[in-house]
Each structure stands twice: as structure tokens, then as C-alpha cells.
Write a structure and sequence with these properties.
This protein has 4 helices and 12 strands. The chain is globular, with a radius of gyration of 18 Å. It has a single domain, classed as Pseudouridine synthase (2-Layer Sandwich). The chain is an alpha+beta fold. Pfam families: PseudoU_synth_2 (PF00849).
């Protein structure tokens, strides 16, 4: 990304935090398969300070939307405590194959990370796994798809993707947990909103909403979304 491109993705900024609209397809940090990653492009977000902001949490490579950055060491530490004590509320949108029964509910299904020979790792629902709970509600349906809002109470790897599969409506574009491992469709998962207490006592709580990325717009429209839809 160019400096102008990363700056255009700033959704919120104060003296402590930045909330960035992370693009789909870009890992947030370096890894064996991630030589290109978001941390390479954070320099322009220093806004004249000595250091660039740092990640306060992470999003999967293929998930777009709200990503919180801390602008200094104290804010990173305080944000870490907020995540630890579940004071950061996260809301996601997805488009799914099919539709769950009913219009809302809760998935309470523990998740376990498993490894296979030569196949890397993946997550599955297993009683031996970690407690994983997600509240959901259907916002729209159409064309064999459903537009679902997810509010995770826990923060497990791939939690929404696997809970959607467990509910019988895997995410559109999910090559790992969806019905088509050869899909060329991007993952339809958006970190739609984050809200958390302001780090400065004199400020109001922070609530930030990310717009749907271009690759999700068509499917969302099929399910009834319009550009003038009010944030949740």
C-alpha cells in the first residue's frame, strides 16, 4: 500500500488509538507465508510521532474491517487489558450459504486446534476444546444466502467461521470450512464495528464502524442491504 492508501483507511484517530479499515487478503503481521503484511505499511500512521502505532489485536488475513492500533506503549498495555477483560465489543457481518433456523440465537460450541500430517492445522468443534460462544442474528436473506451479524463473546481463532459452519450456514468464500475448497470467491467476513472505553477519562466511549468491502457488496445487496442501511 502507498502512504495515501493506508491513510485513507483510517476510520478513527485520537492521541491514544487508531482504528484502521484493514483490507481483505493482507496478513496483519509477518509469518512463514506472509512476507507482505500490514505492519510494513504503518509508518505513515505515526503522524509525526517518533514511532508508528502497533497492533492491539489481530484479524485473519482474509477478514476486512475494524482493526485497533495503539499509538504508544501505555495505550498498547491498556488495550491489552481491555481485551483480556472483555471490555472491547466486536461485531461482525458475514454473508453465508443457506440460512440458519430462526432469526437469532447463540452458538455455544468449544473449539479445538488440530494438526494433520502434511495438511497444517485447522480448528474444529470438540468437547475437549476451549469454550467458544457467539451470538448471532439474521439481518437479511435472498438468493440462497443470508446476511448475518455476529457478536462473539470469546475470541478464538476462526471462531465465527466455524460457528457458522456448525450452524449449517458456512461463510461465502470460505475455502477451509465452506462447501467449495476450490472457491475463487473472497471470504465474506467483515469486522463491522468495535466499541470500547476511551483511554482518556475525559473522552466518550469509542465506537467505530467499517464499510462493507467491495467484494461483499453484491451479495449483501442480494440479502437486502442498501448503502443507506444504518449501522447496528
Amino acid at each position: 500500500m502507498t502512504p495515501d492508501e493506508i491513510l485513507s483507511r483510517v476510520l478513527y484517530k485520537d492521541q491514544d488509538v487508531i482504528v484502521l479499515d484493514k483490507p481483505a487478503g493482507l496478513a496483519v503481521h509477518a509469518g512463514p507465508n506472509s512476507p507482505d503484511h500490514l505492519e510494513l505499511y504503518l509508518g505513515p500512521l505515526a503522524f509525526g510521532w517518533a514511532e508508528a502505532p502497533k497492533l492491539a489485536h489481530r484479524l485473519d488475513r482474509d477478514t476486512s474491517g475494524c482493526l485497533i492500533l495503539g499509538r504508544h506503549a501505555k495505550s498498547i498495555k491498556r488495550l491489552g487489558r481491555m481485551f483480556e477483560h472483555h471490555r472491547v465489543e466486536k461485531l461482525y457481518w458475514s454473508v453465508c450459504h443457506g440460512s440458519p433456523e430462526g432469526d437469532s440465537g447463540t452458538v455455544d460450541a468449544p473449539l479445538l486446534k488440530v494438526s494433520g500430517r502434511g495438511q497444517g492445522w485447522r480448528i474444529k468443534v470438540d468437547p475437549a476444546g476451549q469454550s467458544s460462544i457467539t451470538d448471532w442474528s439474521v439481518l437479511g436473506r435472498g438468493g440462497g444466502l443470508s446476511w448475518i451479524e455476529w457478536r462473539p463473546r470469546t475470541g478464538r481463532t476462526h471462531q465465527i467461521r466455524i460457528h457458522a459452519q456448525h450452524l449449517g450456514c458456512p461463510l461465502l468464500g470460505d475455502a477451509y470450512y465452506g462447501p467449495d475448497p476450490e472457491t475463487m470467491t473472497r471470504l465474506h467476513l467483515l469486522a463491522r464495528e468495535v466499541s470500547f472505553p476511551a483511554l482518556s477519562p475525559s473522552k466518550d466511549p469509542v465506537r467505530v464502524t467499517a464499510p462493507p468491502p467491495g467484494h461483499m457488496v453484491e451479495a449483501l445487496r442480494v440479502c437486502g442491504w442498501r448503502e443507506d442501511t444504518r449501522p447496528s
